[in-house]
Amino acid sequence: MSDNRPSIELTDAQQKARRKRSIAIALCLAAFVVIFYAVTVIKLGPDVLNRPL
Amino acid sequence: MALVEDIKISEPRISEATPRDYFDLLKPRVMSLVVFTALVGLLVAPGSINPFIAAVAILAIAVGAGASGALNMWYDADVDAVMSRTAKRPIPSGRVGREETLVFGLILSVLSVMTLGLVTNWVAGGLLAFTIFFYAVIYTMWLKRTTPQNIVIGGAAGAFPPMIGWAAVTGTLTMESAVLFMIIFLWTPPHFWALALFKLRDYEIAGMPMMPNVVGERATKRQMLVYSVLLAAFAVLPWPLGFAGPVYGIAAIVLGANFIRHALAVWQMADGDATMVPAKKLFGFSLTYLFAIFAVLFVEIIVMRVLA
After folding, report:
1. Do the Cβ atoms of A21 and B56 come within 8 Å?
2. Numbered residues of chain A with Cβ closer than 8 Å to any chain B Cβ
3. B40, B59, B77, B299 — which has fewest CB within 10 A?
4. Is the model more confident about B275 or about B67?
5. What is the ipTM of this complex?
6. What share of chain A is helix, strand, coil (3-state, %, to 5)?
7. d(CA B307, CA B123)
8. pLDDT, tens digit, for every residue of B149-184?
9. Which residues of B touch A42 (CB under 8 A)?
10. What is the mean pLDDT of residues B234-244?
11. Helices B175-198 and B217-236, interaxial angle, to 10°?
């Protein structure tokens, strides 16, 4: 099965902008994960394991 | 209305938007005031909060405020395009599309409210949700284009952050946090009407019912003076109410007197004065005033806690 649609060539500016956006999203996601990890440790501490199973 | 069609949006195109453009959608300058007033509310509140939790709470409030700014830019792209002050914003300048802005604003709204609610408490989270709703829906979609009282009522949205900061620590809404709310609430009309006076033509072209182009310059200046006097009086209240000391009290009196002096100069300004020097001075001073009031409150509380 072949795709005959013409492929879109990104210009340099478009590629650069996309790369910057990707990096920004990655950094935000990483920060979000770190924040929730730290908040969980601070709010629950060792109690995180102390729950009815 | 051909305003919307004049802007190059929604054409199929590949985005060249950078993270900076998305950051600009959050209205960073408004955000800095929100961060500052929320931080003061959080620190002045009785009780203790883990410093990291406090930082996350402030971040969530800032992002929530930014999200409402993005929703405002999504809705107002048509009028932003015709006003000199706002024509360079990301949507009217064609850097970010309207749909992207709407989705960006909605996602950040939900994330910020969930984060604040989970990390602190749901009184603070609920208040942040209400603030975003108030700014985006009540102010932007409803009041802004229909009544000259738009920024008086809409000003409430900008006045909530210290209350949210306070609620993040205590989980309650109290008289003290309501006083902080009132200070920003009463500050907003003279601040924005000073801007509206010297940007009058812009607002006229955009068809925005701002006070000066609805009731005239004279009536606007009189109302600005009334709000300035009320503001100066309310700003002293934290002292007699006992959550600020005499240093704050005296600073609030001096700053308030200066605010009234600037408002008087605007009041005495001749109608049709094209240079608008007193209005520009009041606008500039109003920013200094709000920062100073909250900064003194903040420094005094910190010094008192360190000495205690």
Report:
1. no
2. 8, 10-11, 13-14, 17-18, 20-21, 23-24, 32, 35, 38-39, 42-43
3. B299
4. B67
5. 0.82
6. 70, 0, 30
7. 31
8. 998 988 899 999 999 999 999 999 999 999 999 999
9. 50, 52-53
10. 93
11. 150
